[in-house]
């Protein structure tokens, strides 16, 4: 049973209604995450704004989805893991890529370094070491990429935590955390 119910887009009014209609226009559907966030239109607007801005950054859709998968697995967010498994596959990640990303791994050295840096951000609550930054840079991440990874981790922590608090009903094919296949 959800703790914060999803807002019905058909009955939402004002700013929340406008934002949910924009989501529907863009995606064709309104996932429950956005419907829950609509209780606080400022939070929904911030979520959509940061997500949209970061989507226009330098990280590829595959990289963004891999980061989301790693963060969701670490934070045990079944909703986000389910959503980003679906979205990751749509962005071109194979089933093997999805499983690896959940473990914070990748065969591509740059993606592996990105996931390692993202993992360290979550693990240390942002207090990465100089060695973490040096390792990321050695793999080809420039300052812009480092900042964008921080942004994606923060965005995904927000959605993970919101889904934990709300106990959001999963409206994607369900994937449970803690079930990633070993390498």
From TrEMBL:
InterPro entries: AhpD-like (IPR029032), AhpD_core (IPR004675), CMD-like (IPR003779)
Pfam families, alphabetized: CMD (PF02627)
Domain Carboxymuconolactone decarboxylase-like: 41-116
Organism: Oharaeibacter diazotrophicus
Keyword rRNA-binding among UniProt keywords: no
Listed name of the protein: Putative peroxidase-related enzyme
Superkingdom: Bacteria
Keywords: Oxidoreductase, Peroxidase
Region forming the signal peptide: none
PANTHER family, per database record: CMD DOMAIN-CONTAINING PROTEIN (PTHR35446:SF3), SI:CH211-175M2.5 (PTHR35446)
Gene Ontology molecular-function annotations: peroxiredoxin activity
